[in-house]
Design goal:
The protein is mainly β and 421 residues long. The chain is built from four helices and 25 strands.
Length: 421
């Protein structure tokens, strides 16, 4: 397989540090009078304004860098609903942060308000339906964002409207376009039909504090990670009846035996029905078969290539590669079934291809890779080039003279583009 490794970096200059210090002083200034002013609203998540990336040619943003054949290409970043244009002569209505993030806003008569822009707060679980619409569960907004990237439309499944949510985390969509949303606080799963009507809730008696979720379409199993119970609950994907648990807590604190978990967070299923679990506090990935039997595991704590520092989101691509979102190192790592590192990309930051606590990752049938960021409040979209596509590109490249590849046409990282501005 033709994989290279690339990681975006930024070099800080002295003037950049002074600017950051000055900005920090101004940012902290209002808090000197915090006790004198009555706090009317709870604090919102720290969220930077959308950055202007117009100086970065994201059409050339790929990993790995030349001369290697690219395997991942940046496509776009999404922050939430697009702001509607303000009619000529009309003043823009000012919104409080609660207006921007609330999942439901109503008038005095109870009718839904349509003029509010909802932004991602703490997005996590990701799913895609047969119409290529992207679903993102947001625990802060307490709503599911539904992005139609082709039509550039955004809709929401909201707390208090389409369902009753507490803290939603995991999300998946099955082949029939039913949407499963995991609620950690309510310790249950909400099921919506393809028309986004609530069908039922289930799991109350079997889940303590659930997180990630994945579906095995072939065997009709729904896997829900129970982070507090330190196990994975298995339900029938059609009847929603509880089947069994996979794995469990250690016999004693500190034990890391196979098939035992320490705060697992997410789960994925491959074409053969094998189950992959992010064993977050043990900094490893564990693999089970469809019957729940332990197969293998890989990973260890650290910040080097292939190491983990709180692995969370996990996904399987069309070539059966394993994608893992590492929350502390702010990168995405890609492995083969044996746990060999194939590639990694990303670092902490706000530029395209950089991350702020990546927590969810998903690769759909169109080879689009999605990553949600808890700190940044953003969904990034990438294009994954399959093994077959990479081979074809390499074969085509080998036919050309080395002189045909110029520096002008070469892809670049976002950090490099910013450095050269």
């Amino acid at each position: 397989m033709m994989w290279g490794m690339a990681m975006t970096t930024i070099k800080f200059k002295p003037i950049t540090i002074w600017v950051a210090i000055i900005a920090l002083v101004f940012a902290l200034a209002p808090y000197g009078h915090a006790k004198k002013k009555k706090q009317e609203e709870p604090p919102a998540p720290k969220k930077a304004a959308k950055l202007d990336h117009s100086q970065i040619d994201t059409s050339k943003l790929v990993w790995p860098l030349p001369p290697d054949v690219p395997r991942i290409k940046f496509m776009q970043e999404i922050y939430g609903e697009s702001k509607p244009p303000v009619p000529a002569g009309q003043k823009k209505k000012k919104q409080s942060w609660m207006d921007r993030v609330a999942g439901l806003q109503t008038t005095d008569t109870g009718a839904l308000k349509k003029d509010y822009v909802h932004l991602l707060g703490r997005p996590y679980g990701i799913g895609v339906d047969s119409k290529n619409r992207v679903y993102v569960a947001d625990s802060f907004v307490s709503a599911v964002f539904v992005f139609d990237l082709e039509k550039k439309e955004t809709k929401l499944l909201r707390n208090g409207a389409e369902a009753k949510f507490g803290t939603i985390i995991g999300l998946t969509v099955d082949s029939a376009d039913r949407v499963f949303v995991v609620d950690a606080v309510m310790h249950r799963v909400a099921v919506f039909n393809p028309q986004w009507k609530l069908e039922t809730y289930f799991g109350d008696d079997n889940l303590e504090h659930p997180g990630g979720v994945a579906i095995d379409e072939e065997n009709r199993f729904l896997y829900v990670v129970d982070t507090a119970g330190q196990r994975v609950a298995v339900f029938d994907a059609d009847s929603f009846k509880f089947q069994r648990y996979v794995g469990g807590p250690p016999k004693s604190v500190g034990d890391d035996d196979p098939a035992t978990f320490s705060k697992p967070s997410n789960v994925a299923v491959d074409k053969e029905g094998n189950v992959y679990v992010s064993d977050t506090m043990n900094n490893r990935i564990q693999i089970f078969d469809a019957d729940g039997k332990f197969i293998s595991m890989f990973g260890k704590g650290g910040d080097g290539p292939g190491d983990f520092a709180r692995p969370k989101g996990i996904a399987i691509d069309s070539d059966s590669h394993i994608w893992v979102a590492d929350a502390f190192t702010n990168r995405i790592q890609i492995f083969d079934r044996e746990g060999h590192l194939l590639a990694f990309f990303g670092t902490g930051g706000d530029l395209p291809g950089q991350f702020g606590v990546p927590s969810g990752v998903y690769v759909d049938k169109q080879n689009r890779a999605f990553v949600t960021e808890q700190l940044r409040g953003r969904l990034q979209v990438f294009r994954y080039f399959t093994d077959a596509e990479a081979k074809a590109m390499k074969d085509e490249k080998d036919k050309k003279s080395p002189a045909a590849v110029t520096a002008e046409s070469a892809p670049q990282t976002a950090a490099a583009a910013a450095e050269n501005k």
